């Protein structure tokens, strides 16, 4: 088909050299049309194959000399209609239009032409949508994971390209191979963009690290109430929920139908299996809100549990006479449990804090103080309806 189009185009160029235009012709634009394939259709094909915005083929006026010849051409009048294109707008109005488009609208307009494709993929238009939908659940750890994700994807594409170079290809397949390599290079240039990250999240292709509140509580595991565990999540656009994979000892645990309200971005750079270094112990005082690491045994990952700083037993709770802040010991309270529960209180040391606990009650790790009201309000939203034992 390509060879046929090139031959036809060559014929047009040659015919222009011996066909002289008739200035007395009454037609605006005459185009020959054969019974099986009209020149109008060929004209449209060349227009669609053109990479420029507007390329009009010069139409030829047929001389009277060939009117009764064996060609028997059929004359058709074609009038080119001039109109205003979206690309005729200045850059500022065009950018204002693109800023109003939704993510699906930007993806659609990127399919129109090369110029709009480059504009539609600009990070400037996608950062707003990224922050609006994914800002609360995507943190620094997720972006680092995204970098590793695209690096592995690029290595896989490069491996496929290198493997093809050692295979035998006929001339036609060799041409297709070069075209494929060009597409790979183009893909690698745009894969690390805000649009690519947004699409990978929206389609569920990218499993990003985040934290899930009240892990598996809906499945009857009440012991995870007021906790937050690390997980890798994938978005399901059909249900507008998430699927989580929890790192655990032995087989990996999967939980589905996780709502947006139960997810937050990772708050620290510490991995779930590593003890968090506490840097807030010296400033802890009664009624401060904290999160503390806890795990069942040394083989399981840490989870973050919500609590508050309480008064020592030697303190009467009077804020004017309280000296709890200057003592070496700190009392932590978990008020979601009853006053007689063994999980209600725990004592830690400011100066020599390390992982504490046993196989029966679990192990307590690092402490993180909550400063922002948004974080405190998030814990209060998931507070249990009844006191736990």
UniProtKB/TrEMBL annotation:
Q: Which SMART domains match?
A: FBOX
Which keywords has UniProt assigned to this entry? Signal
The UniProt entry, under Gene3D superfamilies, shows: 1.20.1280.50
Q: Give every F-box domain span.
A: 83-129
Pfam families membership? F-box
SUPFAM superfamilies with a match to the protein in the record: F-box domain (SSF81383)
**Secretion signal, residue range per the UniProt entry:** 1-19
Tell me yes or no: is Phosphoprotein among this UniProt entry's keywords.
no
InterPro entries membership = F-box-like_dom_sf (IPR036047), F-box_dom (IPR001810)
Q: What is this protein called?
A: F-box domain-containing protein
Recorded source organism is Penstemon smallii
């Amino acid at each position: 088909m390509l060879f046929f189009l090139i031959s036809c185009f060559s014929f047009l160029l040659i015919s222009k050299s011996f066909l002289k235009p008739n200035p007395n012709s009454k037609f605006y634009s005459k185009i020959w049309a054969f019974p099986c394939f009209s020149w109008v259709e060929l004209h449209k094909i060349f227009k669609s194959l053109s990479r420029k915005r507007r390329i009009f083929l010069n139409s030829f006026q047929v001389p009277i000399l060939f009117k009764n010849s064996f060609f028997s051409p059929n004359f058709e009048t074609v009038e080119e209609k001039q109109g205003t294109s979206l690309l005729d707008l200045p850059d500022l109005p065009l950018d204002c239009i693109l800023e109003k488009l939704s993510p699906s609208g930007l993806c659609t307009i990127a399919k129109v032409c090369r110029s709009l494709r480059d504009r539609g993929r600009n990070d400037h238009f996608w950062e707003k949508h990224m922050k609006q939908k994914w800002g609360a659940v995507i943190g620094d750890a997720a972006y680092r994971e995204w970098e590793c994700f695209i690096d592995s994807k690029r290595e896989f594409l490069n491996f496929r390209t290198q493997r093809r170079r050692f295979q035998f290809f006929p001339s036609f397949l060799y041409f297709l191979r070069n075209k494929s390599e060009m597409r790979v290079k183009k893909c690698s240039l745009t894969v690390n963009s805000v649009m690519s990250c947004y699409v990978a999240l929206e389609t569920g292709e990218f499993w990003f690290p985040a934290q899930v509140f009240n892990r598996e509580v809906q499945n009857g595991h009440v012991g995870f109430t007021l906790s937050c565990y690390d997980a890798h999540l994938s978005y399901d656009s059909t249900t507008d929920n998430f699927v989580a994979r929890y790192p655990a000892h032995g087989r990996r645990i999967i939980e589905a139908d996780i709502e947006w309200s139960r997810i937050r971005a990772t708050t620290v750079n510490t991995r779930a299996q590593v003890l968090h270094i506490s840097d807030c112990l010296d400033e802890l005082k009664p009624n401060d809100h904290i999160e503390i690491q806890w795990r069942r045994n040394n083989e399981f990952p840490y989870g973050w549990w919500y609590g508050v700083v309480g008064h020592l037993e030697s303190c009467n709770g009077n804020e004017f006479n309280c000296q709890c802040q200057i003592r070496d010991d700190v009392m932590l309270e978990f008020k979601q449990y009853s006053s007689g529960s063994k999980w209600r209180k725990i004592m830690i040391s400011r100066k020599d804090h390390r992982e504490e606990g046993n196989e029966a009650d679990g192990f307590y790790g690092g402490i993180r103080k909550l400063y922002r009201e948004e974080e405190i309000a998030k814990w209060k939203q998931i507070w249990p309806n009844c006191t736990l034992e």
